[in-house]
Amino acid sequence: MTMPSLSRIAVPLLMAGAAIALGWYGWQRSDATAAESITIAIPTQMSAGTVFVARDKGLFSRQDLAVTVQSFTLGKQALQSVLDDKADLALVADVPFMFARANQQPIAVVATVFASRHTMALLGRLDRGINAPGDLAGKTLGTVKGTNAQYFLDKLLAIHAIPDAAVMIVELQPEQFDAALRSGQVDALTAWSPLLTRIQAAHGANAAVLMEPDMFVYRFVLVGKKRFLDAHPERVARALSALADAAASIQEHPAEAQALIARAIGLQPQQLAASFRAGDYALSLDQSLLLSLDDQTRWAMKRGLIRAGRVPNYLDAIDVRPLALTQPAAIKLIR
């Protein structure tokens, strides 16, 4: 008889243990309980939609949480705030998380909160001969290294059989995007909403948007230092409960949510029409996250971005306890 794998046993047991152990923290809190503070660092992007909705609708307060939101341009900047002990939790894309783990940072994922196939794209200039991925050979392309933008670009080139030697890659920061494309420093660059929307609007009919929805998932995870997660598991669980309520609100009232999220990232609601999908906002811990982290690790090793070796077991980088209290059915990590 075939024995079940360790992860097949360990994850359900850990979920059950979390529910029992955290009961001692008093999951059912009285109205007299003072709000506990928590600081969440986020990128000012669509990916933070559940945080915007939870904040603006008072969903954190309903969980007896006093939340401070730190805003950054990039998720990896939000992650750095956690690493610097300036924030408790961060919303970050899976690629910077992978790099942080490769550098032995003591952080763990508590949930995926956003996963979109319509947010990341390559934005090019038609007058530079870019109208399709096959046109990228011989071009200069800009990206933000160490992020999922770089990973997206490499995958885009690979699936269209464009070798490294056929393109020049230039590292850019988001604030340089528009000027670099306008001046001709680059012929195309990787971008995401809201930057993608703004730059596309600025370039009008000369903008070509190359998106590969079947190739790439723009995934953001909520992470924290293990020390904080171990010390405050019930507080993190209540933060996830607020975000789960926010995700439900987004799915029940998508037009209202689209307007709220657009306002939070400095766009008009109609400017989100092409990329907004209410279903992209949901809490989960599933196999797709593990598979993506494995693939990203192999890519980073091949590129020489991290030390080559065995791909780690990313189950060790996931803390299921908070989500086990709020949405246990969303945990599907058995393999």
Automatic annotation (TrEMBL):
Keywords: Membrane, Signal, Transmembrane, Transmembrane helix. Pfam families: NMT1. One of its GO terms (biological process) is alkanesulfonate transmembrane transport. Residues 37-257 form the Solute-binding protein family 3/N-terminal domain. One of its GO terms (cellular component) is periplasmic space. The chain crosses the membrane at residues 9-27. It comes from the Bacteria. Belongs to the bacterial solute-binding protein SsuA/TauA family. SUPFAM superfamilies: Periplasmic binding protein-like II. InterPro entries: Solute-binding_3/MltF_N, SsuA/THI5. SMART domains: PBPb. It comes from Massilia eurypsychrophila. This is Solute-binding protein family 3/N-terminal domain-containing protein. Its main location: periplasm. It is found in: Periplasm. Signal peptide: none annotated.
